[in-house]
Amino acid sequence: MHWVLNDGSMVRSNRPARNPRIYVYVNGTLQIKAITPADNGKYECIATSSTGSERRVVTLIVEKQESAPYIVKTSQRMTELFFGDHRINVHQNGTLEIRNVRPTDTAEFICMARNDGGEAVMVVQLEVTSMLRRPIFKNPFNERIVSRFGKTIVLNCSADGQPTPEIIWTFPNGTRVTSEHHHDSQHRLGNNGTLVIYNPRKEDAGKYRCGAKNFMGYIEKLIILDVGQKPYILTRPRGIIRSMSGEPLFLHCLSDGNPKPGIYWTIPGGHTLTRPQDTTLHDRGNYICRAQNDAGEAVLSVPVIIIAYPPRISTAPPPNVKAVTGTSIQLNCAAIGIPKPEITWELPDNSVLSAAGQGRHLGSELLHPQGTLIIQRPTASDSGTYKCLAKNSVGTDFKVTYVHVL
């Protein structure tokens, strides 16, 4: 007795086959151990004797048996859900539906499937967070920031939302960078949405767009970065500035920067100078020039000394003057001092004549700007004491002359 197998090979009784799973007994029985779908096919049994031979074909069909599913073991107690609960339902296709989900629904859900081959279990962990919210910026307004050349700058883009939004930066050149990637060694993205720019250059200036995204929505804001230059002062005094009291004083403070800086002067009294004014003795001290722009400020201190001394009458008429009626009398009075003194004459009738202006008449008297008093066509009534007074902000000086008209 021998068998022709499905692959065409032959196996004789009571002899080992090439396949250890197959064996033919003396009585002609064919045994196949641990059959598989590969054993499907036709098997032919051949019996031979001295009188002849006989054949029989057997077709073997191996049916696939459903294997027992893999069982996921759990030590937790399970609550079985029935079809048709008010808020929780299991559909016929096995889908679990939870309506109006609540934080208390956070749990481990176990789905169990059974058939004749066994059962299988799937575990689903459900976490119910607080109410979902679209992103919102902590500072929703567009910003304009000025940074100095070479000084590290931080652009803020903090956003809230549920789930936590992803921060996306778009550079002025259109490059998009997310919080998951670093752009290059000059830029660093922080976990809180910040963009750090190291050693900013002029080409880093421009419009930066910051976006915050989760599956509830997307928002965006604009940050304009100006990379400016701190002001610097071009002119500096070589020492102490000396000025005459009463004279205009010019203090120069030329500066440059980006953007163009504004210039502010602080005078020694601590006040900001708002208009030109003549100097006085009280103006001495340190004058502070500040050049300011959005990138910073530069400060220049200018020490000033004001030169001043009180009047001193250098030219004066004699103490007594005699004159003839009708003949003009000239009384000279000149003074020196800083600031320049003002000359006035006090007449015998106590009236006062000032030298300010181009010369003034008072009756028969004429006073020139230089301080000379001329009495035209004098009479006996012009006799008396004439007083020349020189005055400035520091002090006064005077001389007295008695005029006798004969």
Automatic annotation (TrEMBL):
Keywords in alphabetical order: Disulfide bond, Immunoglobulin domain
Domain Ig-like as annotated: residue spans: 1-59, 135-214, 231-301, 311-401
Residues in coiled coil: none
Gene Ontology BP terms: homophilic cell adhesion via plasma membrane adhesion molecules; synapse organization
UniProt cross-references to InterPro entries, sorted A to Z: Cell_Adh-Cytoskel_Orgn, Ig-like_dom, Ig-like_dom_sf, Ig-like_fold, Ig_I-set, Ig_sub, Ig_sub2
Top-level taxon in the UniProt lineage: Eukaryota
GO cellular component: axon; neuronal cell body; plasma membrane
A Pfam family reported for this protein in Swiss-Prot or TrEMBL: Ig_3
A single GO molecular function term of this UniProt record: axon guidance receptor activity
PANTHER family per the UniProt record, alphabetical: CONTACTIN 5, HEPARAN SULFATE PROTEOGLYCAN 2
Protein name: Ig-like domain-containing protein
